Amino acid sequence: MATRRETSAVREHRPIEERRTQLLTAASEVMREQGVAAATTRAIAERAGLPHGSVHYCFGGKTALLRAVVRSEVDRSVERAWRRAAGSTDLEGLLRNVLEAQLGGVRDDPGHHAMLAELMALARRDPELADLPGWEHERYVSAATDLISELPATSDFTLARPAREIATMIMVLAAGLSDLWTATGNRAELDRALDDCVRGLAARLSRPA
C-alpha cells in the first residue's frame, strides 16, 4: 500500500492540464451544491483531492478559476444547442431547437443554471470579472448567428432581418422563458409560451424566397 507521502508525490506530478480539469470539475460541484460563496480555494482543492496550493499553481488564483469555470460551462451549453440545431431546414425549426436546448439545461439541471446566474451576479460586482456577462452574451449570439446564416443557402425562404438581430432575439427569449420556468416550474405553461414565441417570431422574421 502506498504511503501518504508516495500518494502525495503522485498527485504533485500529475500533468497540469489534468489538475486544471479536476479543479474545474470540483469548483462546479461545490458551487452547484453549496453556492458560489462556499467555493473557497481550500474547499475546491479538497473536493478535487489535490493540495491546497493547486488552485494558485494551476490558475494563479480563485478569480482566474471562476473565470475558467464560466467559460467552460458556457461553451458546453453552446455546443449542446449547436448539436441540437444542426441540420435545421427552416427558421422555426432552428428557433425551436436552440430554445429547447437552452431550456432543457435549465429544466434538467437547475443547479447548473443557478450556479451560472450566481456567477454572473458576482461578475457584475467584481471588476476583475466584469467582462464575463458581455462575453457570455456574445458567445451565445455569435453561435446562433452562424447557425441562422447557414439556413438560406439550403431553404426555400429568406430572412426578413439580419441573422445577428434574430440571434439576439433568440437570446432574449431564452432568458425570458428560463425565468418563467424558474418562477413557476409549470411545464405546460412553458411549452405554450415556447410554441407561441417560436411560431410568432418565425412568421415575422422569414418570408418565401
What would you say this structure looks like, in words?
- The structure is a single chain.
- This protein is an all-alpha fold and 209 residues long.
- It folds into 2 domains: 1-60, Arc Repressor Mutant, subunit A; 70-208, Tetracycline Repressor, domain 2, CATH 1.10.357.
- 76% of the residues lie in helices and 3% in strands.
- The chain is built from 10 helices and 2 strands, in the order ααααααααβααβ.
- It has a two-stranded antiparallel ribbon with strand order 1-2.
- α2 (16-34) crosses α7, α5 packs parallel to α8 (132-149) and α6 (91-108) runs parallel beside α9 (163-184).
- The longest helix is centred in the middle third of the chain and has 24 residues, at 62-85.
- It is elongated, with a radius of gyration of 21 Å.
- It starts with a helix and ends with a strand.
